[in-house]
Amino acid sequence: MSDSTLRIGLVLPDVMGTYGDGGNALVLRQRARMRGIDAEIISITLDDEVPDSLDVYTLGGAEDYAQRLATRHLTRYPGLQRAAAAGRPVLAICAAIQVLGHWYETSAGERVDGISLFDLTTAPQQTRSIGELVTDPVLPGLTQPLSGFENHRGGSTLGPDAAPLGRVRHGVGNGVGDGTEGVVAGSVIGTYLHGPALARNPELADFLLARAIGTDSLAPLDLPEVNRLRSERLAAARR
Ligand code: GLN
After folding, report:
1. Which of 86, 164, 168, 203 is 20 to 30 A from 146, comparing alpha carbons?
2. Does the reported pTM lie above 0.90?
3. Ligand 1 test: best mutation among 67, 133, 191, most atoms within 8 Å of CB?
4. Of the candidates 146, 151, 181, which has an alpha carbon nearest to the alpha carbon of residue 167?
5. Which residues on adjacent β-strands are paired with residue 134?
6. Quick count: other Cβ atoms within 10 Å of Cβ 143?
7. What's the CA-to-centroid distance between 84 and ligand 1, angstroms?
8. CA-CA distance, 99 to 78, in Å (whole number)?
9. Ligand 1: distance of its center to the CA of 94 in Å?
10. Measured from the CA of 60, which atom of ligand 1 is nearest?
C-alpha cells in the first residue's frame, strides 16, 4: 500500500455488520478505484486497537448483544473518537448511531453508555420499525432522496448539538412521530438506512469519498445499474 492509498476503515465487522452494511466500505473502495484512486479496506476487529489515522470509517448495524461488545471496544480504544475530532469522515449505520450517542437502552431495558460522538440518546420504541425508508436530505451538499430499509427497535432522540440527516418521506426514521432521520455532527454521519446505504445512495457515497480525499469535486460516474437499483427501491417505497 503506497502513501497515497485511500484507507477505508471497516470498524468491527465481526460484531457490527447486519444486512450487509460492510458493503458500504466496498462501495467507497470501488467508487474510488473507478476514478483511478488507489483504495484499500482496513478491517478493525475486536482483536485490534482502533486506529485514528485512516481516511474514512464505516460502522454497521448490530443486534443488541453484539452492539454491547462493540461499545466496550470503542470505549477502550478511542481511535474513532480521535479521528472524528480530527475531522475524518465517519458513517455509522443503525446500531452504530446508538453506540455513538450518549447512551442507549436495549430492548431488555438495560442502559449502556455510548461514546458521545452524537448528542443523542436511544430508547426502545413500542414496536420494531421495519420496512422501506425514504428521506429528503437536509445536509447541505446532498440533493437526492435517500433510500434504504430500516429494522430497529431503538428510537433516537437528538439533542441540540445534533442535526438530522434527513426528513422522513416514507417509513419511521429516528422514532415514531419524530419525522427526522439520521444525525450529523461535524464529519460524523449516522443513518438508520441499510441497503447497504452507499450502494443505494451514490450521492452520499461520493459526499464521504470527497471528504476522505480532501477534494470539492469528484468526476461523475455513470453507472446505469446503480440508477436502476435506486429507481426500483424508491418505487417499492411507494407501493
Ligand atoms: N439493536 C438495535 C435496535 O434494535 C440496532 C438494530 C440494527 O442495527 N439493525 O435498535
Report:
1. 86
2. yes
3. 67
4. 181
5. 147, 170
6. 8
7. 23
8. 13
9. 6
10. 8
